[in-house]
Structures are given as structure tokens and as C-alpha cells.
Amino acid sequence: MSSTYKRTSQQQTWDPDAMEKAIRAVRNEEMGFLKASKEFKVPRSTLKRRVKGINKEAIEIKKILGSCHPTFSMEQEEELVHHILEMEKRFYGLTLQDVRRLAYQLAERNNIEHKFSKDTQMAGKAWISAFRKRHPELTLRSPEATSLARAQGFNKVSVMKFFDLLEEVRSKTNYPSHRVFNVDESGLTTVQSKSSKILAQKGKKQVGAITTAERGVLSTVVICMTAGGSFIPPFIIFPRKRMKELQDGAPPGTGFACHSSGWMQLDIFTDWFKHFLKFAKPTEDDPALLILDGHNTHTTTLDFIVLERINHTTVLCLPPHCSHRLQPLDVSFMGPVNKYYIRAVEKYLRPGRAITVFQFSKLFGEAYSEAAQQSIAVNGFRKCGIEPIDRHVFKDHDFLAADTADVALAEPVTQQNEANKENETPEREESPSVLQDALEEILAMTPP
After folding, report:
1. Where is the HTH psq-type domain positioned along the sequence (predicted)?
2. β-strand 288-292 against 313-317: which pairing, if any?
3. Which of 315, 314, 328 is nearest to 374 (CA)?
4. Is it the case that residue 6 has pLDDT exceeding 90?
5. Coil, strand or helix: which one is 348?
């Protein structure tokens, strides 16, 4: 059964209008506390607190009871809804966890008293349920199974919607090629088991197939290039708590961070964005357009959203499961840098000699310096149809696999069918979507 709040407390069973009259009578010295309490049938102790203003509750006649009252004001919730709409419009594909995390960050940033979990740093399930009821303009779509999503990911509808949005954004602001950026992160391992496993797009099947013993020490590199052929210095995340002596041999200007996992983290991505701003230097007269993978969940933090807005950067996400065809770095850069990294590793290896994390920067630096060529960057954006914009760069046969998948697109979850499923499964990580008119409205509001 759905959880519906039922009041069990016996507090404040008195009439608020009667309490207001009793307060007025006491303050006007028409009667004392005892007489007013009996006359208007209100608790004497409560009447005293409210007349004397002992605590915050005394200021208001009506006390908010229970634990389900909104944490935010309507204005603050509208701000959160605005974030969700903007991010959905840019193909962010927020999950319920993302929204709960944003709510926690909004409360913390504005010093709002809340009961959200500090351990998970997210709002609770009860909050997100009530939030959705208060804002029916937000709806949900059922998540697709991963295999089906991948099969349908590169479909003509999604790709054309991306080009619609790209043209919309670039029609408002004339971004020259050197102000159109693409960023992506990849994992590299110090162990050369098979050449195809040395460097691969994070999350791809071949990376998941590597065993712990084969993988060695894994670090993450964040690479960013422009449609004009230039490169932002890379950013390396080491699987260490300290980075002493790990930076030797890295490309000039490289940024660094450390985390025990070696993977990208929420706060580290914000650090990378500050690194990006240092070199891209976007201004009101010379803004930047940053294109990234739609699966990059690190861009869903409130800190990042605020940073991009105040630093004249428009972030545009690629549709899910389309990076192998729409992401310039994936199309033109990752292959060459993988090849050059393997070559650097083979050159370094000697009998009885192993590669450790301390040689990583130097080996990656050699590979990066060979791969970071203007022609590689320019060709990547051109092949993806991003610069120059060419929505017809992909032919009908390119969408064949998606078009022949025998699966219908997910339908929006209505309140009725959602209610029918309440007894079936606990809360799932579903991706919020918005009604078409809300999307069109937010598109019109997007700043250049």
C-alpha cells in the first residue's frame, strides 16, 4: 500500500482562531491566563508561551506538526525544479538519487535546517515522493534495460533531438570553433595484458573484463579538446592519497588530484572544471560551449551548475549511449592515444622491469604529446557533425541497429500506473523527464 500520512499526535487539537482570541484578550488585559484558557478552551501553558514569545513557535498561531512538512520554501523548490528542467533539457538524464542529492546540497548551501542524511548526503525517499506530488510538471520515464538502451541509444530520434538542441544553442551564441570544447575521462592501467585493455573508454565492456590481477594500478585521465584543434592540458587522478613524485614527466599545465580508487569523484570533477576555466578563460563576450557524455553524473552537483552559470559556460550533454558516434574524443582521439601509450609501455619494459604509478605520468605524457594534434581534434568534431554542424553526417544505415530493435520506447509513468506498481518493487532509480511544453519553455530561457 502507498504510504499516506495519518496524524496520531493529540497536540494542537485546539482551534487556532480561539487561540488568537485568547492571546488578544490577555494582551489587552481583559482577562488573565487561567480565565482565557477556560473561556476559549485552549491550553494555558501554550497560551503563555505564545503571549510571551518564549520560542519560535510562539510567533505563529498555527504550529506545523509532523515530519512531512516541506523543507524548502516554494521559491527554493522552484529553484530546484528550474535546475532539474535545465539539466533534463540538456540530456543530463537525472535519476531520483541525483535529485535527492541536489536537494541536500541546496539545503546545505543555504543553511536550511533539514533532516536529510549527512551520511548519504541525500534527501530521503519520503521527501522526493512529496516533492514530486507538489510539482506535477515533473514526470518520470521507466528506465530501459542496459542492453536495450544500448541497442536503441544511437537512434535517429535521439540524434536529431541533439542536433536540434545544438543548433538552438549555437544560434543564440555564435561560438567559434576554438570555443567549442569536448571533455571525457578514461581509465589507464600500468599493466599491459593485452593492447586492447591498456586504454579504453570508461565503462566499456573490455575494461570490465580485466581481472584485478591484470589491471594493476589504474588512474584516470581527463582530456579536453576544441573543434579548432587546441587542447586544454590534461587532468590526472591518481589512486593515492598523496601525489609526491607522481607528477614527473606529465604534459605541461597538467592538473592533478588523488583518490584511493583512482576514479573521478563529484568534488574532483568540480576541481577539473576550475582547471578548465583557468585555461579556457570564458567571459561574457567570449563564452564557452562544453560538450560531454550524457552519462557523466559528476555534472549534476549544485556546485558545478552554479560554477558553469557564473563563468559563462554552456554545458551540453550527448544523448545516452551515443558517445561512440557523437563524441569527438571517442571518435578520433582515444584510438591514437591508446596506440601511442602501448608503444611507450613496450619501449619502457625490460626483463624484470615493471611499470608502477610513478612512471605513469611520463608514459602518458609521451602518448599524449603524439596524439594531441590539431588534425585529430578537428577531424573528430567534423566526423560527429558538431563542427561544422551537419545533422546529415549520419545516414539511414547508421541507425539500422537501433531501428530494427524490437522494443518500443519507454512510455511516461502516469500517476495511475505508478500507483499500480507501488506494491511490486521498492523505489527504483528512474530518470526524471518533463512535459514537452516545459522543455520548450526552458529552451527559450537558456542564456546564450
Report:
1. 1-57
2. parallel
3. 328
4. no
5. helix
- Whether residue 41 is predicted with pLDDT greater than 80 in this model: the reply is yes
**Of residues 239 and 294, which shows the higher confidence score?**
239
CA–CA distance, 304 with 227 (Å, rounded to integer): 23
Q: How many CA atoms lie within 13 A of 393 on its CB side?
A: 17
DSSP 120: T
| Positive/negative CA dihedral, 241, 201, 321, 156 | positive
- Please answer whether residues 176 and 416 qualify as being in contact, where contact means their C-beta atoms are separated by less than 8 angstroms: no
Specify the CATH number for 153-402; select among 3.40.50.300, 2.30.30.30, 3.30.420.10, 3.40.50.2300: 3.30.420.10
Find out whether 225 and 333 touch, Cβ atoms under 8 Å: yes
Q: Say if residues 158 and 405 touch (Cβ distance below 8 Å).
A: no
**Model pTM score:** 0.64
Strands 199-201 and 231-238: unpaired
Report the length, in residues, of the chain: 448
Distances in whole angstroms, Cα of residue 1 to Cα of each of 66, 159, 416, 420: 20, 40, 14, 10
Return contacts of 117-121, CB within 8 angstroms, 24+ apart.
Answer: none
Q: What is the pLDDT of residues 309-330, one digit of tens each?
A: 899 999 998 988 888 899 999 9
Of residues 292, 274, 100, 315, the one with CA closest to residue 202? 292
Phi, psi of 322 (to 5 degrees): -120, 0
Residue range 416-440: mean pLDDT, rounded: 37
Residue 213 has pLDDT above 50, yes or no: no
Three-class HEC string of 30-92: CCCHHHHHHHHCCCHHHHHHHHHCCCHHHHCCCCCCCCCCCCCCHHHHHHHHHHHHHHHHCCC
